[in-house]
Amino acid sequence: MPEPLICLMGPTAAGKTDAAIALAESFNVELISVDSALVYRGLCIGAAQPDYPHHLIDIRDPADVYSAANFVEDTLNCIADARSRGRRVVLVGGTMMYYRALIEGLADMPATDRVVRAEIEAEALQLGWSEMHRALAKVDPDTADNLHPNHSQRISRALEVFRQTGIPMSQWQRASTQDRREAICIALAPNDRATLHARIEARFDLMLEAGFVEEVKALFERRDLHVDLPAIRAVGYRQIWSHLSGEYSLEEARDKGIAATRQLAKRQITWLRSWSGLHLIDSEAKDGREQVKNHLRNYLEAPLS
What we know:
By secondary structure, the protein is α/β, with parallel strands linked by helices. The chain contains 14 helices and five strands. The protein has helices at about 15-25, 70-85, 95-105, 115-125, 130-140, 140-145, 150-165, 170-175, 195-210, 210-220, 230-235, 235-245, 250-275, 290-300, and strands at about 5-10, 30-35, 90-95, 185-190, 280. A five-stranded parallel β-sheet has the order 2-3-1-4-5, sandwiched between helices.
């Protein structure tokens, strides 16, 4: 990786995509999506799919499980291909776990043990995932703090790693032997949390008007999809899915979807605050996009090495 990665981060609904498109049009760069929902086909309205070309959008069926390791491999291939054509790329999105895996590397954790995983899933069926999350918090509080109690796949994996090795997943991740990749990281976020909350609510309502329920219904009617899949657990999709299954009214699903999106934004901001060397720009500033351009101009206009 002879040149640093360019990463445009930020919480959901902060305006990252528009700023990235402005970069692409100004400096003739290609964009790579860093979004764990947009990798799945059929997740368009609720995942705010951009209408400008990005790599790593619509690349997997929603029945698949797409991991951080998959993202790293696909991203490095995209970067190599772009550079072979004399182009640079900018990574844009809010899935912080993907950024961390790409920049800091993936820990060499043990492979999946199907017997241990089956035991955990049997316990979860009896006790519920909230109780499994509490069990994880006792042995690996660092990992548990970053997981929603309903995030069954990642809770299961963290418990599995601990039961296999006696070592918390968070410790495995800190012990990663992969060399860190150099990166220039910029984040767009409003200084006022209330402003972001208002943007999230307005955007969710626009999604509903654009046919979000119908989009989820098309997924709901597939017999091979269920609530434990990462695609269906995506923020917004999970709540509308619950409405379609009769658990919530549409109004309740809307309110819960907005609340879940705000919680996602809060977690994203927490990650950003701990990110070393991050350059933060107020997304509500009138010259916010120009600040992004100016911060990257010298790099993006330089000859490709």
